[in-house]
Amino acid sequence: MELRVDSLCQWLEPAAPTASVLAVGERFLDAASAPWLSLPVVDDGRPVGSVSRYELMQRVYIKPFGRELYGRRAIASVMHMQPLVIAADATIEEASRTIAARIRQPIMEDFLIVDADGLYVGMGKVLDVLGAMEQRMAAHSHELERAYHQLKSSQAQLVQSEKMASLGQMVAGVAHEINTPLGYVRNNVEMTKESLGELRGLLGAYEQVVDFFADGGDEARLAAHLQELDLRREKFDPASLDDLAGLLDDTVFGVGQISELVGNLKDFSRLDQAHVSRVDVHQLIESALKIGGNLLRKKNVEVVRRFGTVPEIVCSPAQINQVLLNLVTNATQAIDHEQGRITIRTHAVGQYLMIAVEDNGAGIPAEHLARIFDPFFTTKPIGQGTGLGLSICYQIIEQHQGRIRAVSTPGVGTRFFIALPIRGKAEATP
User: Fold this and answer.
1) Residue among 422, 418, 424, 423 nearest 285 (CA)
2) 303/73 Cα distance (integer angstroms)
3) Taking a C-beta distance cutoff of 8 angstroms, is the pair 85, 112 a contact?
4) How far apart are CA 150 and CA 136, in angstroms?
5) How far apart are CA 230 and CA 225, in angstroms?
6) What is the pTM of this model?
């Protein structure tokens, strides 16, 4: 039987156009929304728009004061009003043609599915359509060839789509990473406010005594002022001024952590994939570890750094950062025991910089190891893997005129090797 769109349909609770931006933003943190690039907006049963996770972050959450400016507004004010809508009885081939003709670039939204009356019945993933097309390759060789060329021509969009899918899975962890320093910043501010209140009371008591001598008064008033001053002095600890300086230092440090995390997030989500510069690869590694930090802590995985003395390299930082985050995430997910460890090594060999990412996880069976860089190949359950992550990593490294390889022993672990030219492909040309 011919595969139709309704076979890919999954129910995702839609948002009302009157829902607040903050309420919809919170929806993206739910586990049910994590695999999706966008949420549907439905009014009276009919689709009226969609909300892209990436666009919401760019337009609201990453912008200074974005939450304050847009948070209480209706989601209709920022939604995409021409969502990708496909009929449930459409064939996969028809759906792929509709997606190719109407999808925005880079890919940042999934599509809404409607019944014959135009009523919302669920959501479908663009990547699922691509996966379904891939499964029909053997029976439709001509269509396979055409789809392959379309895939190659849309490579940049697929890279960005996979990046957004990875970012979507990290959103809850990133929110936790921000909340941790934000929590002690708030606590420090409250403690500082309390200390300043005590200091203000003490200064007020001194001021009353000074005013008494300046204006004159009876001894009873002076005794009362002095008694109040003594009480204030007993309550006030001069050492709290030193504590106050420490609290402010901690607050500045916490704000710096938030700023650094947001900066890493912005660097990772940037669209300028072609931007090439000379960078310290160790900084890219640390950036990837920060973005994936919550997942590492959740699984109690130790990260061991074995960094050598290496020069800066010429590369696309956004692309290499995506490769590193993918390898770290895959390594973490492969570990299912309490003594998880990921070791990252760097060293220079001739004109190449070598990076090794090694885990002590489950390992990869030999029959799968030869296919791990194939598009759409995944051993993860449906809905948990796109099969594009390592394929895109391979393409990125190849485009940098580098090499990526893997060795694995089931039950022992896996090691990925990356070799990148130090001078970069642009500088290597005489």
Assistant:
1) 418
2) 42
3) yes
4) 15
5) 9
6) 0.46
Q: Are 319 and 358 in contact (CB under 8 A)?
A: no
- Dump the DSSP string for 138-193: TT-HHHHHHHHHHHHHTHHHHHHHHHHHHHHHHHHHHHHHHHHHHHHHHHHHHHHH
Q: Could you report the per-residue pLDDT of 2-42, keeping only the tens digit for each?
A: 789 999 999 999 999 999 999 999 998 888 888 899 999 99
Q: Output the CA angle 182-263-81, nearest 5 degrees.
A: 95
| Residue 18 CA, distance from chain mean position | 27
Q: Has residue 225 got a pLDDT over 60?
A: no
Using one digit for the tens of pLDDT, what is the confidence trace for 272-298? 555 788 999 999 999 888 888 888 888
Residue 424: is its pLDDT beyond 90? Answer: no
Tokens of 275: 């931007």
Q: Is 214 exposed, middle or buried (0-12, 13-18, 19+ CB in 10 A)?
A: exposed
CA torsion, ordered 321, 324, 330, 331, to nearest 10 deg: -150
Residues making up the chain, counted from first to last: 430
